What we know:
Blueprint: H1 3-23, H2 32-44, E1 48-53, E2 57-63, E3 69-75, H3 102-121, E4 129-135, H4 148-154, E5 163-170, E6 178-180, E7 183-197, H5 212-223, H6 225-230, E8 237-246, E9 256-265, H7 268-283, E10 291-298, E11 303-305, H8 307-317, E12 325-327, E13 331-334, H9 337-343, E14 346-352, H10 372-394
Helix pairs in contact: 1-3, 1-10, 2-3, 3-10, 5-7, 8-10
Amino acid sequence: MDLLRRANELGPRLIEIRRDLHRHPELSFGEHRTAALAAREAAGAGFSVREGIAKTGVVADLTSGMGPTVAIRADMDALPIQETGGAPYASRVDGVMHACGHDCHTAGLIGVAHLLAAMHASGGLPPGSVRLLFQPSEERADAEGKSGAMRMLEEGAMEGVDAVVGLHVGAHLPAGRVYLRAGPFFAGSDEIDLRVRGRSAHAGRPQDGVDALALACQGVVAAQQIVSRRLSPNDQGVLTFGSIRGGTAPNIIAEEVRLRGTLRYFEPEVRRRIQAGVRAAFASLEPMGADTDVRFRAGYPPVVNDPRVTSWVREAAGPIIEGGVVESEPNLEAEDFAFFANAAPGAFFWLGAALPEPRAHHRSDFDVDESMIPVGSALLAGSAAHLMRRLAEEE
């Protein structure tokens, strides 16, 4: 089967599905409408479907005899952002939009279901099984600190899986190219929750208080030197404080300040050094009268692409992608696909999908080149079939 030709024939329908999802975005662990659509499409293609996995996830299986099982994952959740791009398919949900491309991923995986079903019907699907993972909540963790991938693993979504593949549309990358690498690809992440407590006083009598706001700012400046002065220039790490809140009025010395941030890493030692540096930076405020509390919440581990599976995805992608496969640099973004790739050998890649004037991820005017949706479907379907063959050869 000419996968790309068949995928492009499905293209108009997949694009309409994407636009429907874009009009009706749903936040993490609330993807009820999205999941119902995915389940309906997968069942219609002939897959055996299980719903309600990890609250709102969908697992769909297609079997063509005894053989290896390959999983393909797409995330489904949107972001709490008010859309401003003005597209005719713009979000109809106030304050919520698909600003990262998960609507494209879901539509693309629906395309994979139809492509693989057609391969199976024609006798072209190798022996084995394909499992589609429509995953909730990639963008955030729940109250217990667990993302959708973690919840799906707990509920057995990866049982019996021999390899797993996924992609992310790249609104910042030239359309029509695959960006792939073996080894560390997406960074691990931790969240930082930090409190600086001082003593309030009248703004006109600062000597009577301990200014938590001024000290917190001092701590942030000190912490920003960790990456530049405590890490080797050959190491990769990021420390960012994205939220600072404190004080009650302009004429009162702030008594308490709360800060939230994130650190990114590939190597455990880099993670350890950044954490130690943040603790030291804020502990240095205590001799000046501050009381500090620094807490780290483990986020997603690094995405590490299995060299063998990555080479097979590269083989499968070559005949499909006209723009070619590009050896990618590691990314400091985080991705909970990492949990799937820790459960079975995996490969994750970027599919370039930039518009002529790119719209960046997590921006209120985000958008992509929709013609890449069927291309992504062909790449994932082709990778799954190729991995089934390669895995069977090794048995």
